[in-house]
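Bug report (template v2)

What were you trying to do?
Predict the complex of my protein with fe (ii) ion.

What happened?
Run completed; filing so the output is reviewed.

Input:
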Amino acid sequence: MGVTGFVDIHCHLIAGIDDGPKDDQQTRALIDAARSAGIAAIVATPHCSLRYGLDSDDRDARLAAAESMAADTPLLFAGCELELSEERLQQFFEDPRRYTLNGSRYVLVELPHNAGGASLDRAARLFRERGLTPILAHPERYPFLPPDSPSLLAWIDNGGLLQATAASFTGRMGRRAKAAAFDLLARDALHFVASDAHDAVKRGPDMREAFANVAAAGDVHLAGLLFTHNPLAVVRDELLA
Ligand SMILES: [Fe+2]
């Protein structure tokens, strides 16, 4: 696959499976919006949580329907957003590559809403012991996880990676998340920026404004790493540059 375009490793694209699109029409609209925004590839990441259980066979069947809508632009791959609850970790470790991003060593994870960050170092070790690399979704959006918190530093020390949400860099996720996202960027702590899109517009896939803001705050090379090259390495199951 080419690298001219964004590679989005966090997107709720699949219809009728979580709090993303309700039907195929909404999935089609999201795909069209992503294509218009210059997104070359998307990993579809439905929640795998206590609220939204994930049947990976059902996900794959629904993704096949979405692929016929996308017609290779953007390319679509399967993954999930794994909640770090005991129940879902148990499900995950029964067959990890069913849940990792495009069957790679990389797994996208989120914290239960009221969990706090206390279990992050243990979780990072669990994945690492099995040769897997966890990516924590949107650390900037957890009020209990400021950029300099010991939990987040322990996550990073144990090999965990960080993915910020594009909309945090435009202010659409609120002032606190925006400040935290730019703080993490300045600390050189981020590895990926992804859309976390849930629909075509309100929580849409357009990452262009965020890219411009990140490029302006850092440099274009760094923005290219976060929006394209690092996520492409994930899809290809390669080490990050
Ligand atoms: Fe998400």
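What did the reviewer find?
The CA atoms of residues 156 and 162 lie 8 Å apart. Helices lie at 24-36, 56-70, 86-94, 120-129, 150-157, 175-186, 208-217, 220-235.
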